[in-house]
Amino acid sequence: MKRDLTTFACAALLLVLCGAAAAGQYAALPGGELRSVMPADGKEAPAIVAPFSMRTAPVSNAEFRDFVLAHPEWQRGQAPAVLAAPTYLAAWRGPADHGALAPDAPVTNVSWHAANAFCASEGARLPRWHEWEYAAAADATRADARDDPQWLEHILNWYAHPASTPPARVRANPPDYHGLYDMHGLVWEWVEDYSALFVSADSRTQDPRKQLDYCGGAALSLGDRRNYAVLMRIALLAAMEGAQDGGYLGFRCARGAATDAPKPKDSP
User: Fold this and answer.
1) Whole-prediction pTM value?
2) I need a labelling partner for 256 at 20 to 30 A (CA). Which of 17, 116, 178, 237 fits?
3) What's the whole-number average pLDDT of the chain?
């Protein structure tokens, strides 16, 4: 097992250094102050989001198929169990064949580790929570539409629908203010720092990497209805482990400053 993890760490480093020949489309976001459900000081201070770029759409089945063909160590059945659960790519027909799933639908049943490796393959990383929250606040004409009750109602309606069919194709609806597609209404999405969203109450899991960087879940504005959608995403991500996945859990990638390259990891 140690040899497997060392091999994966080396492979991840090569992905960072080399990147991929055909990366996805990215949109530049200016950053700025964010009135976050996770205040920077754990009380009420806004988060400061540095300028960054984000993939315009979730990674698709076709894009992930190309990735596992180029990096067979991430094919189903090849990744070590500590990096991918038995449900990894469970809906695919084969290790590198998404079968009947639409090629332009978002890939799901992908672990955090696999998503992180894909992003590293194109010189990127998973978005951090505040970056994702900043991007997800926009509608078609405004950078922050969270005070619009109609927009919030539209988003919340998606959460009320049962997840009984595979996700629809990406880019089926118009882009938002930043040029991003499907921030809501298609899939849940991994973030780089998902494991820091809440502190575990179990003393046996007091890994410093799992401590809440933002000073405690008590800061969440649970009484504010406009936060429900992002709070549900936090609740989902906080319950996950890096090797787990889900039928409606996908991802997109982000890029920050030149010094913000992803680092190979054996665990989040």
Assistant:
1) 0.81
2) 237
3) 81
